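Protein data sheet
==================
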Amino acid sequence: MDRMNDPDYYYKLRLDSTEAIATRFRPKVGRTLSEKRWRDAFDQNGCVDMSKVLIRIQKGGVHPLIRGEVWEFLLGCFNPNSSNAERAALRKSRRQQYFKMKSECQTMDSAVGSGEVLILPRINEDGSPVENEPQREIDEENHLNGNMEPVGMDSGSFHTEPQDENISDFVYSAKQVHTDYMVHNPAAKRHSTDHEESVQSQERIAAVNGELAVGYEEDSGGMIETATMDDGELLDALQAKRREVNAMFVQDKKVIQWRLVLHQVGLDVVRTDRALQFYEKPEHLAKLWDILAVYAWIDPDIGYCQGMSDLCSPMVVLFSNEADAFWCFERLMNRLRENFRCTEHSVGVQKQLANLGSVIHAVDPKLHQHLDDLGGGNYIFAFRMVMVLFRREFSFADSLYLWEVLNDITGKLDAKKACKEALKIHKKYLLKANKTVEESMMDTTHH
């Protein structure tokens, strides 16, 4: 086989991996979107005719050579009617925005962007630093992560070399971000290192009250007012200060909740796509961790949930630039985030499972009944499949192909249309099966 048409050539597997799933899909000439057909879809201004492109993709997926740039359009990062110049400007702006957000995260936890992948918690629920974990837990993590060499485990992290991202066009420096954040978010100061003591809320309130009490003196006769503000102005100032303190408390809580989840992100990252040679390089693991950490900060309603690393990993593999990978993941999550929303009574993906049950019941009632007889009528067994879009049921290459041909990546999958098409396929199968049975009966009669 021509190696250029072998998906495993682009997504090489570790020689010692025992978890690899065989790849079945192979790009097919005349069906798979090739590099030539992709280039031909652009006009002289750089606009792309996606209608013809999508038809080709649904027939045979996207060739691995161009998958990254095609996915930027499929995920909605770029408008197909935009010009080359417009996309270049947007890419530059987004890269600046991402590294600004990442720098903000760095002020709150120094592990972000350092080349580290945290696997142990570094703070307690109240925001205070965690004491060094017992050696037993460290040994368990070392065993879990196989061939990775832990360095500096006293801080609960894997150390990798800092990433050499090309951010020369990033004019908003990390130092500026740090300064701005500290000025506007005093609470961040107590999170900038793991060794600073937490500031108690009572101390803050006392400081605020003390500040507002300037201008008042107490003697044996009671309080003597020396302030120039009248009571109304003083009350307004007090209320404004309290609002500021409340905002600081909210910010503190958000920072703590975000930092508490970082080690869980790390535990999932080091387990993700371990069969790929790509993740033998620690800097690639660090990139995946950084992207997930930043996303958890900017989307606090969802934060981080197990399974997100499976969805983000393809972006890290496809895009060498971390910011580009982040925005593709963000677009994908924009369509899938409700699957990860949890309440006291339900998980978002349950709606998808209910839809799956309806589809199977319509397409194959006997299969649905069989699953129900086995106790699987609620389709909980498909929870992981739906949550991470079959990432763990197929090889890396096959799962990406599946996303493309089923329109999962574009978010335009019409359940009613999918049911209709599935019923057509089912009907075609039944007709073929009946024809085979009839032919077999005729052969038997003749003999």
